[in-house]
Design goal:
Elements lengths: L1 E10 H10 L3 H5 L9 H17 L11 E5 L5 E5 L1 H9 L4 E9 L2 E9 L1
Antiparallel strand pairs: 1-5, 2-3, 4-5
Function: Transfers the 4'-phosphopantetheine moiety from coenzyme A to a Ser of acyl-carrier-protein.
Protein name: Holo-[acyl-carrier-protein] synthase
GO biological process, one term: fatty acid biosynthetic process
Length: about 120
Amino acid sequence: MIVGIGVDVVQVSRFKEQIERTPGLIERLFVPAERDLTVRSLAARFAAKEAVAKALGAPVGMNWQHCQVVKDDAGDPHILIDGTVAEVAARKGITTWHLSMSHDGDLATAMVIAEK
């Protein structure tokens, strides 16, 4: 049963400007394993985190580092949660996440489906 759906689109050039203008933003948004990725990949991961937040109903107090995108051996992306995000997901009975990410030109997008 679908509990929530979230989608987000990030303009890569605007995201790049924000991380260049705001010291510490990368450290606040991403776990160490994500931080060395290209700006384009970071923008897509940020879109995925935003989509997770939307699928959860945009809970107050969500820590961005408690949600990350990991790739399996085949290179497919998956959502990995812990902490504040896992707590909200548990309250809602969410056991399964589906993630699709894409890039086109200056845009990065992600769609998330949360199921129980």
